[in-house]
Design brief:
- The protein is mostly beta strands and about 350 residues long.
- The protein has one domain (about 75-345): Neuraminidase (6 Propeller), CATH 2.120.10.
- Helix content is about 5%, strand content about 50%.
- The protein is built from 4 helices and 25 strands.
- It has helices at about 15, 45-55, 55-60, 225-230; strands at about 10, 75-80, 85-90, 95-100, 105-115, 120-125, 130-135, 140-155, 165, 170-180, 180-190, 195-210, 215-220, 235-240, 245, 250-255, 265, 270-280, 280-290, 295-300, 305-310, 320-325, 325-330, 335, 340-345.
- The strands form 5 sheets. Strands 9, 10, 11, 12, 13, 14, 15 and 16 form an 8-stranded mixed beta sheet that branches. The chain has a 5-stranded mixed beta sheet with strand order 1-4-3-2-25, with no helix packed on it.
- A hairpin with a 4-residue loop joins strand 11 and strand 12 (about 195-210).
- It is globular, with a radius of gyration of 23 Å.
- The protein starts with 8 loop residues before the first strand and ends with a strand.
- InterPro entries: Quino_amine_DH_bsu, WD40, WD40/YVTN_repeat-like_dom_sf.
- This is Lipoprotein LpqB beta-propeller domain-containing protein.
């Protein structure tokens, strides 16, 4: 992996380590400006005549189309085996600044956009998971990382664990396991509140995403009974304002098509986007929750093995797809090498 340093910087001392960064020019996102044509009027008399009969300018001015959110430039990834975080430029595929080392005795597990331009990363040691907040400089270089108070989960974090942070950064959801049974914890660091929903069924709980107070996830039954019954993966939603208890209170909103294993809920909660593998290609497809039918194909890429993860943290209309082939796929940008990353977010 390309990097700008020979070794990681410890997270708690990251702020002081900034002094070792080499000064560089601040990178700016390219912006597209559309210049409108300006009619030239050659005769003054003609202008006066038009002004007498013209409608008010406000009535003639066309409505502007809503501006699209700019494509994020950087992704932050958890470098295998969890010993560091790296920032990667999606335009060049190269790392930016120094890697950020995991806290002593811990390994980074998952990362997600954390609201306010920050990232939240989960770090595990034994049966305890803590959370750190990472901030970047404007040029993408890591600026500082600090522990999030009142954010601790007890449980075993595995390769199947998952993380999602609400768009406003107020709630953190994390999945741990006790044996083969999953558990979902929802934390509110500002108040110290924690809610837990558990399951006794053998299944993987993955692809966490938020729509308001609703947390969605992909439920993938496993074990002999599930295989015998040919259980189908499904997207389920959990109203996190409910009292904690059993995951049975969650609702099934969509059955995923064959081969699909990851999905995200739209911010308005009306649709689900998933990767549908077909031969050597994978199509990013949106389904209506109301009808269960596909509504739109976003793109099709040559991705062998489908998708491992989808991330909507870059904002509405911007999805980051982590392919099973070890590359990150972004509409409107070249694929980004990511075989060295266990997880990534933007």
């Amino acid at each position: 992996m390309d990097g700008n340093s020979t070794g990681p910087v410890q997270g708690p001392r990251l702020h002081s380590a900034r002094r070792t960064f080499l000064p560089v020019g601040v990178a700016a996102l390219a912006a597209l400006a559309v210049a409108g044509g300006l009619d030239v009027v050659h005769h003054h008399e003609r202008v006066v005549a038009k002004e007498r009969t013209a409608k008010p300018a406000s009535a003639k001015t066309p409505k502007k189309k809503p501006a699209q959110t700019a494509l994020p430039r950087y992704v932050v990834g958890v470098r295998r085996p969890g010993n560091a975080l790296v920032v990667r430029d999606i335009r060049t595929g190269k790392d930016v600044g120094l890697p950020v080392a995991a806290p002593p005795g811990q390994l980074f597990q998952r990362i997600a956009r954390g609201g306010g331009g920050t990232y939240v990363v989960a770090a595990a040691a034994g049966k305890k998971v803590t959370f750190q907040r990472l901030r970047l400089e404007k040029d993408g270089r890591p600026k500082e990382m600090a522990p999030i108070p009142n954010a601790v989960v007890s449980g075993v974090s595995t390769a199947a664990s998952d993380l999602a942070v609400s768009p406003d950064g107020t709630h953190i959801a994390y999945v741990t396991y006790r044996g083969t049974a999953g558990r979902v914890d929802v934390l509110t660091p500002a108040s110290g509140e924690r809610k837990t929903w558990t399951s006794r069924t053998t299944a993987r709980i993955s692809s966490l995403s938020w729509a308001g107070d609703t947390l969605s996830f992909v439920w993938s039954p496993s074990g002999r009974k599930a295989k015998a019954a040919k259980a189908v993966r499904q997207v389920r939603t959990l109203d996190t304002t409910l009292a904690p208890g059993s995951l049975r209170v969650s609702k099934s909103v969509l059955r995923l098509p064959a081969g699909s294993g990851t999905a995200v809920l739209s911010p308005d909660g009306r649709s689900v986007t998933t990767g549908v593998p077909e031969r050597s290609e994978t199509t990013l497809r949106t389904y209506s929750i109301e009808t269960g039918k596909p509504t739109k194909d976003l793109w099709t890429q040559e991705v062998q093995g489908g998708l491992r993860r989808l991330d909507i943290g870059g904002g509405p209309g911007h999805l980051l797809a982590y392919g099973a082939d070890g590359r990150l796929y972004i509409q409107g940008a070249p694929a980004v090498p990511a075989a060295d990353l266990a997880d990534a977010a933007w």
